[in-house]
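dumping these here so i dont lose them again. two proteins, back to back, each one seq then structure tokens. dont judge the mess
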Amino acid sequence: IIAAQMGIQGAQRSLPYTSENMMVKNTLAISLYGLIGLLLSPLTAMGGPMLARAALCTGGLVAGLTGAAVTAPSEKFLQMSGPLMMGFGAVFAATIATSFMGPSGAMGKGVYALAVYGGVVLFSALLLYQTQQVVRTCERMPSHQAYDPIVMSTGIYMSTVNLFVRILSILSGQKRK
């Protein structure tokens, strides 16, 4: 499934955004979003109220961060690429480490917290970065160049999905206590 996701995203990026390719690009986008929905479908076992709460929290967070990124007076969020990469490394390592460490020990709980809470911080910062990147691209793109909103919005969509999964994980951990 991950290979299919990567293939769809590669095909999206390889096609120019023209009127001839519009149907293909939209079909690829819909198939990518359907694939992500298929991957997220097992989360429905957590129950409707928890999913609704996580969706509301994610929506509020994304709306607030997007508003902050769009109305920011400078392009300060675009200077976060280095720290974002370091954060990706830390969260990725913590996510892999949670597979090998038990959640009962102090080290396992700390690594899990880094993977979940660090993921929320990381994807929030990434959302700020991506939103400001879209705004800058729209403002500075010459009118004769083609702008590809489908490819630009896919990153924001993936960050939103990752935030939703992390927030759902936090809420499910609170329910167990």
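---- next one ----
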Amino acid sequence: MQTVQKYMLECVKTGGLNEKTISEVLEALQTVLGSVYEIERFSAVVDQMFADRFGDEVRTRVAVMSRRNILIFIGRVRPGPLFVTRIKAKYQGVRSLQDLAAHQVACSIRNSTVSLEQLPIPS
């Protein structure tokens, strides 16, 4: 799926999670942020994604800080190591059609046997 919206993610509080887990969390959130436009749907998709990935004991809450900036709380609600992680997503804008086209070409080349030198370059 193409990512249309751009967000800069910042981990405000790790909640004791290790760097690898935080990296996975940020990557997953970046994917959802780029493809879901409505905040209500975003909240449901993020909650389900973390339940699938980390189990039913993990819950998320989404708070809109300003028009498009978002604060995401992730925490454990059942027995086990307790953690509360906060991620801030700052809206950066919308990707241009040129960026989307370049991304699509790059993905096609990576998954193809055609080398870059063989592609015709339009003038």
